[in-house]
Design brief:
The protein is α+β, with helices and mostly antiparallel strands. The protein is about 20% helix and about 45% strand. It has three helices and eleven strands; from the N terminus they run βββββββαββββαα. Strand 9 (about 115) and strand 10 form a beta hairpin. The N and C termini lie far apart (about 45 Å).
């Protein structure tokens, strides 16, 4: 562990979802450095499963990458809400799956995963939702449906640009909970 000392916060610009912070730090070599970082509100991502398939939502435009990307249902965690409370809201909003159609909702992580770089900090909460096979997911919201086996997940991975969605799918795969 290095001995760094925060000297001052020079700038703080906050909104509901993002805070931009400019700081001066004294590094372990005695040099004063200026750092800028973004603190984002935690995210929740839900991996929906139904009858041996994994579902992604219709691609949505992402200004940060300048194109539409394929993703799992996800969104920001509002202040004062628990991640488990938000997962059914995301399924309803993005795939029109009502809470009563969710047979099981299991967290993939018990502590938030840190999505961290020298410029940006955020936490990620991930869930797997098993959807009642009798419920028909409206086609209008589905961007991609892939078999929940090794081949299907590998193929789906080639279409996921979002690193967080890829991490959720890989974590689920590593746990050996695929259908093959």
């Amino acid at each position: 562990m290095t001995d760094w000392k925060r000297l001052a916060e020079c700038v703080r610009v906050s909104s509901q979802w993002v805070t931009l912070i400019g700081e001066r730090w004294l590094c372990d070599k005695g040099k004063e450095l200026e750092y800028w970082r973004v603190e984002k509100v935690d995210s929740v991502i839900v991996l929906p499963l139904q009858a041996g398939y994994v579902f992604c939502v219709k691609p949505a435009f992402r200004p940060g990458v300048g194109c539409a990307t394929l993703d799992f249902p996800g969104g920001r965690l509002p202040d004062g809400k628990a991640p488990r409370e938000i997962a059914p809201v995301l399924l309803r909003r993005e795939l029109a799956i009502p809470p009563e159609a969710v047979i099981r909702l299991e967290p993939l992580n018990s502590e938030k995963w840190l999505i961290n770089s020298s410029f940006s900090n955020q936490g990620l909460w991930a869930f797997v939702a098993e959807i009642d096979p009798a419920f028909v997911i409206p086609e209008a919201g589905i961007g991609k449906k892939a078999l929940a086996d090794t081949a299907g997940c590998s193929q789906l991975m080639t279409h996921l640009a979002c690193l967080q969605c890829r991490a959720v799918l890989m974590e689920w795969q590593q746990r050996g909970t695929r259908t093959d």
